[in-house]
Fold this protein.
Amino acid sequence: MRRQRRSRVVVLRVLWVGAELAVTVGLVLLLLVVHQLWWTNRQARAGAERQVRALEREWSGARQDGPVPPAPTAPPTAPGAAPPSAKSRAPASAPAATPAPAPAAPREAYALLRIPSLGLVVPVGRGVSRRGVLDKGYAGHYPGTAGPGGAGNFALAGHRNAHGEPFRRVDRLRPGDAIVVETRDAVYTYAVDRTLPRTTPRDTAVIAAVPKGYDEPGHYVTLTTCTPEYSSAYRLVVWGKLRAMRPR
């Protein structure tokens, strides 16, 4: 009898310890999820909003002080694409636009992305590094692609979940929806043209100067993000074409 009681006590203690460990692990996982999906969003959004206000104040002051001539820039080349030739230049019928100068600092926010139909306003940073740009809640400008309003493809990346998730709802964009890019010197308005629901992360043709699915040069914008939600297995892509440009 005593031996049976001791065995029962041991079993109960093991079960109790196991239950405590399971609860502890569950709480730790819950805290990690809360941190990843709530706290990182809160931090990134707050930082991105501060950057939006800072750029708007800076540009407002620049307009009062007078226009600043843009610095000359070399024509960019999309990753994996051949250098532009006379044949690949935009036709005369393409919208006239002056590419914005590239920012001096590689991770500096230098433009604003506005998508009115989604209620989205976020800074645009140079590069697509996670820590330096994307995890701040910014849209990241792919190196080597065209500048805002420039001939070619102005390609952007952004998180769909966590870290501000600026591109959470880009799957809701429809043809004709406006994608507005503001710089210190000009405002460029693109119109959504096509959506690619899924492609591989290595499909660099989607950000080429003439994007995948198109057959002629133009003034494009590309938005890329992860899909499906809470996964990075594939990429969702939205393309737009330049519709209008106006100086600030």
